[in-house]
Amino acid sequence: MMNPIPVIAIDGPTASGKGTVAQRVAQELGFACLDSGALYRVVGLLALEQGVGLDDGPALAAVADAITTAEDPAMRLRFADGRILLGTRDITEAIRREEVGRAASRIATAGELRAALLALQRAQRRPPGLVADGRDMGTVVFPDACLKVFLIADVRVRAERRYKQLIEKGYPGTLESLLRDLEERDARDRTRDRAPLVAADGAKILDSTAMTIDAVVAQVLGWYRAG
Ligand code: C5P
User: Fold this and answer.
1) DSSP SS3 for 69
2) pLDDT score recorded for residue 214
3) What pLDDT is recorded for position 168?
């Protein structure tokens, strides 16, 4: 049966601006927003802290189950007012660290983990609509999305954008190491067996290399309203 609640899927490589665009589009339309990468980052953070092997699929799936169906309130994952909480612990900043992003990219190859996060992602679909960003929103999680956007940008421009964000937050790092890191993550996301990063059938490809965020948001809204 067709699900009447509209979903806009925005997929693309690391630091392509998906997150910001998704939030802005959701705000404009009054839709909910799903940052699916945050889920992989939360599991990545916990795996690092708990010493869970980054290639141990069943153990990673158990971590995902623990935070989504948590009986222990200290382990319950919540999104509230733009913050990400585990019980009462605020992990909004912790999951943005580069080492956590790297761990997230590694664990995301595990099919068991991806399956464990599927229901949680689909449960975010609620009226009047959802904007979901990630790697497999249009291909796997919401194949019936009414608009699929594949957002790309030149890797050097993406590295520069990420570098600026990190400097603003006072994190150390060099542009060259960030660039290498992005290339490595892109390659892993594109070549993995499960839910690889590819444009979904019917996706609109948007190259934001020479575009402002405002222009990207306007284009996505334009497509949605025209559809
Ligand atoms: O988008 P973000 O950089 O926060 O995602 C962190 C990592 O999680 C990515 O490098 C990617 O490997 C993984 N991911 C994924 N599928 C998604 C979202 C993120 O595999 N839908």
Assistant:
1) coil
2) 97
3) 87
